[in-house]
Design a protein that fits this description.
Elements lengths: L3 E12 L6 E12 L3 E5 L6 H8 L7 E6 L8 H4 L3 E4 L11 H10 L7 H7 L15 H13 L5 E5 L7 H16 L3 E5 L3 H7 L2 E6 L2 E6 L1 H6 L5 E5 L6 H7 L5 E6 L2 E5 L4 H13 L5 E6 L3 H9 L6
Parallel strand pairs: 3-7, 3-8, 5-6, 6-7
Antiparallel strand pairs: 1-2, 1-4, 8-9, 10-12, 10-13, 11-12
Helix pairs in contact: 3-5
GO biological process, one term: response to antibiotic
Membrane topology: Peripheral membrane protein
Organism: Actinopolymorpha pittospori
């Protein structure tokens, strides 16, 4: 993690004019560190794609500053194109072009491309190599789009829903490839609807809604905020909760939300876990199904936006 490869300050993007104007991005600021994976999460219409398109030079900001690799993505687009790999959500290939033919064409546009045959093998494109783009399945189009974004050895890669429509095997393979690129020093930005993807891959997460950043931090930072982690176990009905609470650290809480089902709230750490098991042993209680339930990134998203993150 080093210098910033993307800097966005107070970005505003509006479509249309006058009373009919629609604000897609409303004062958004974010930064992407070199050699990192940054995930941008948000419900549909939050402004994710517009923000990425502004970084790619496809949209001109109404207001604010956008810097990509130290350059302006609109006025310096020609200089940026060889250095930035972009995976579009849809399109990017001619409908009649064969998959590998299209990839080889893109490779020839770069001075030092990756080995196309190795990339085809890695992304499992060999079986559809001679198939016209329009006849590819959704997953095959996604894998081809990823290959086209990577073949030029970019310094920065922007991925819009990189694993949408992929089966679990292809999704895992894509994750492994992203992790390899990060280890090689490539900076990556991805938008995704898969929370597990963001939690596994991202060094930094931005949650945006209605064109603004409403939360930012590493996955662990975000999931440690808000609701505390919980410890659950089952036992006999009607345990002495006052006695159990007295044994726990200050700030803890105990509830029996259903007969024989117990919930402990607070800072769940090894000390608290040992305290609970010791109390149960001292009172002759066999704690069944003892489990720590941690706050997930999806929990955070629902609390912040009140909406599920769906494609």
């Amino acid at each position: 993690m080093g210098d910033l490869v993307i800097e966005i300050e107070d970005l505003v993007v509006r479509y249309g004019r006058g009373k009919a104007a629609v604000t897609a991005v409303a004062g958004l600021s974010l930064a992407v560190a070199q050699g990192s994976v940054t995930a941008v999460l948000g419900p549909n219409g939050a402004g994710k794609t517009t923000t990425m398109e502004t970084c790619e030079g496809y949209r001109r900001p109404t207001r604010g500053r956008v810097s990509v690799l130290g350059l302006d993505p609109v006025s310096d687009r020609r200089a940026l194109m060889p250095r930035v790999g972009v995976m579009l959500q849809e399109g990017g290939a001619w409908s009649g072009a064969r998959a590998v033919e299209m990839l080889r064409h893109v490779a020839r546009l770069h001075a030092n491309p990756l080995d196309v045959d190795l990339l085809v093998q890695r992304l499992d494109l060999a079986g559809c190599g001679r198939t016209p783009y329009r006849r590819l399945s959704g997953g095959e189009k996604q894998r081809l789009a990823l290959a086209m974004a990577l073949v030029g050895r970019p310094e920065l890669v922007i991925l819009d829903e990189p694993t949408a429509g992929l089966d679990p095997h292809a999704r895992r393979a894509t994750w492994e490839l992203v992790e390899e690129l990060r280890r090689d020093g490539v900076s990556l930005v991805l938008t995704t609807h898969h929370m597990e993807e963001a939690e596994r891959l991202a060094d930094q997460v931005y949650v945006i809604d209605r064109g603004r950043v409403i939360a930012a931090g590493s996955p662990s930072e975000l999931t440690s905020r808000g609701a505390a982690n919980t410890l659950r176990f089952r036992g006999p009905m009607g345990l002495d909760l006052r006695s159990l609470l007295a044994a726990l650290p200050d700030g803890s809480g105990v509830r029996e939300p259903a007969p024989g089902s117990y919930l402990i709230l607070g800072k769940i750490d090894p000390h608290l876990l040992a305290t609970v098991t010791a109390w149960c042993a001292a009172h002759g209680v066999l704690a069944d199904d003892l489990a720590v339930e941690r706050h997930t990134l999806e929990d955070v998203f629902l609390e912040l936006t009140g909406r599920e993150l769906r494609p």
